TrEMBL record:
UniProt cross-references to InterPro entries, sorted A to Z: Amino_oxidase (IPR002937), FAD/NAD-bd_sf (IPR036188), Flavin_monoamine_oxidase (IPR050281)
GO molecular function: polyamine oxidase activity
Organism whose genome encodes this protein: Glossina palpalis gambiensis
Taxonomic lineage of the native organism: Eukaryota, Metazoa, Ecdysozoa, Arthropoda, Hexapoda
Domain Amine oxidase, residue spans: 25-478
PANTHER family, alphabetized: AMINE OXIDASE DOMAIN-CONTAINING PROTEIN-RELATED, FLAVIN MONOAMINE OXIDASE
Record protein name field: Amine oxidase domain-containing protein
Length: 488
């Protein structure tokens, strides 16, 4: 990246573009620009790796995804459509009913009958989400209307299950739902979160077989293995380059100062840093301060925390015919747990099998307890999880031969997993549209642009939403220079 000031006549060939972040939005923006003839493109990545919240690592019999894991939907999903265009749909497969045919085990080791679980799951995951009209007119939180709807449906049942078990199921189902919303509680989630999000039709849990989500980054970069060859971007990505300041009204262009002390000058910046990082550092990161509408969006939107556990066993976890199981706490056991140092286990809602990994079990934890879990040592976390499994399961639980967990919140380059709209978002009357709005100069030229899943109004929280946002900002620059060339 040249440090000289730009020439008087700027063209795609000479203009200097810096993309901050090498997640799917940053990769999508940079590759689109390079393919359109922008020669001077540089990605600055704070981590020591490329990929952002796509993070595939070798583990057990193949790989695991510490971040994004599934392609959610087929129609109007640019990830799926990219594979379809390249005749590569064979890279994906359905995960099936793993997350809908789970067992429910109570903390006294009782197993809830499958018939009861099936009916409760149908109500929670099929009947309630379909009632969009009620969401539109509801003024309370998503948690409030979900509770109201759920119990109304339970009261309609001719054959009513034990109400205590139903209550235990509902509490666990809400936690499982939080893994989709990334909220701390459903009572902070706004109904607008569901109303604004556009679900892509088709299978919502398409997995990447034994290759992981890194496959999609390879396709964007047009390489076989981006960890060895960055393909389209070649030497245009610099890792371990954390940005300290962006002086976006500097007389020589946009002055970017790194924590290393290095200074880079650019004509355009595409900022794809996570919403969590913007929340923490926008006041010091941008000089001068961002417009109030942008600040309101940063403060009003939320980046939640969802973490995973991966336990590798010597042989497939038994019973082998269980695809997964959720934990249902008896009230007295839950009260006792909350008085111990392992209180955070309350938000571990279940463990499930992993496609193409027969010896693995994958667990999930959400919310503030997920953030607390990150502060503990790996040894403490594993010991607590083994206690949890042995408390709920009646059969012997062997020690795992390998264990890992994610820590998305304590990583200063992420500070969470994916975004949502809360009641506070509605109160501030803000949204992704404000976060996505570029900073422009007097001539209408985009100076600083914003991309990433949180800037997507309808596909937030997804890789396809992040990718769309990267292409959106690349196209904004491409169209600006096309229009400029036509007016010469």
């Amino acid at each position: 990246m040249a440090l000289v000031t730009s020439s008087l006549v700027q063209t795609p060939q000479s203009v200097r573009v810096v993309v901050i972040g090498s997640g799917p939005s940053g990769i999508a923006a940079a590759t689109r620009l390079v393919e359109a003839g922008f020669n001077d493109v540089l990605i600055l990545e704070a981590e020591s790796r490329v990929g952002g919240r796509i993070y595939t690592i070798p583990f057990a019999d193949s790989v695991i995804d510490l971040g994004a894991q599934w392609c959610h939907g087929e129609k109007n999903n640019v990830v799926y459509e990219t594979l379809e265009r390249l005749n590569l749909l064979n890279l994906l497969e359905t995960t099936g009913d793993t997350y809908f045919k789970f067992k429910c085990v109570r903390s006294n080791k009782d197993i809830v009958p499958d018939k009861v679980v099936s009916k409760l799951t149908e109500i929670f995951y099929e009947i309630i989400p379909s009632r969009e009209d009620e969401l539109k007119s509801y003024e309370g939180s998503a948690g409030a209307i979900m509770t109201e709807m759920f119990w109304k449906e339970i009261d309609k049942l001719a054959e009513k299950p034990d109400r205590t078990v139903v209550k235990e199921y509902f509490e666990t189902a809400k936690k499982a739902n939080l893994s989709l919303e990334a909220a701390d509680t459903m009572f902070e989630v706004s109904p607008s979160n569901a109303l604004q999000f556009e679900t892509s039709e088709g299978d919502q849990n398409l997995n990447w077989k034994d290759k992981g989500y890194q496959t999609f980054l390879n396709l964007l970069l047009k390489t076989d293995d981006y960890k060895k060859n960055l393909g389209l971007l070649g030497d245009k990505i610099q890792v371990c380059q954390r940005v300290k300041h962006i002086e976006w009204q500097h007389e020589d262009g946009i002055k970017i100062t790194l924590f290393s002390g290095k200074i880079i000058v650019a004509d355009h910046v595409v900022c794809t840093t996570s919403l969590g990082v913007l929340k923490e550092s926008h006041k010091s990161l941008f000089q001068p301060s961002l417009p109030l509408s942008k600040i309101r969006a940063i403060e009003g939107l939320k980046l939640g925390t969802v973490n995973k556990f991966f336990l590798e066993f010597e042989k497939p976890f038994e019973p082998v015919d269980w695809v997964g199981f959720n934990f249902l706490w008896l009230e007295e056991d839950l009260m006792a747990l909350r008085e111990t140092e392992r209180f955070w286990l309350e938000n571990v809602f279940g463990f499930y099998r992993v496609a193409h990994q027969p010896r693995l079990m994958q667990g999930w934890i959400v919310g503030r307890h997920a953030r607390y879990m990150e502060t503990l040592s790996e040894k403490e976390v594993l010991e607590a999880l083994m206690w949890l499994l042995r408390k709920f399961l009646s059969h012997p639980v062997p020690e795992p031969i390998k264990f890992t967990r994610t820590q998305w919140y304590t990583n200063c380059n992420f500070r969470g997993t994916y975004s949502l709209r809360t009641m506070y978002t509605d109160e501030l009357r803000t949204g992704a549209w404000d976060l996505a709005a570029p900073l422009i100069d007097g001539d209408g030229k985009p100076i600083v642009q914003f991309a990433g899943e949180a800037t997507n109004s309808h596909h937030f929280g997804t890789v396809h939403g992040a990718t769309e946002s990267g292409w959106r900002e690349a196209d904004r620059l491409i169209h600006f220079y096309q229009k400029k060339s036509l007016t010469k």
